[in-house]
Amino acid sequence: MLLQELSEAVGVSGNEEAVRKIILGAIDGHAENIRIDPMGSVTAIQKGTGGTGLRVMLAAHMDEVGFMVTAIESDGTLRFTKVGGIDDRILPGLRVRVGADQIPGVILWAPIHKTWDQKGVQKITSLRIDIGASNKDQVNSKIKLGDRVVFDSRFMELSDTMLRGKAFDDRAGCSLLVDVLQGGPYAVDVLAAFTVQEEVGLRGARVAAQALNPDVAFALEGTTAHDLPDPTADPDDVTRPNPACKVGHGPVLTVLDRSMITDPRVLRFLRGTAEANSIPYQLKTAPGGGTDAGAIHQANAGIPAAVISMPCRYIHSPAAYLSREDYAHTLKLIQAALNSLTPAALEW
Ligand SMILES: [Zn+2]
Question: In angstroms, what is the span from residue 87 Cα to ligand 1's centroid?
Answer without folding.
Answer: 15
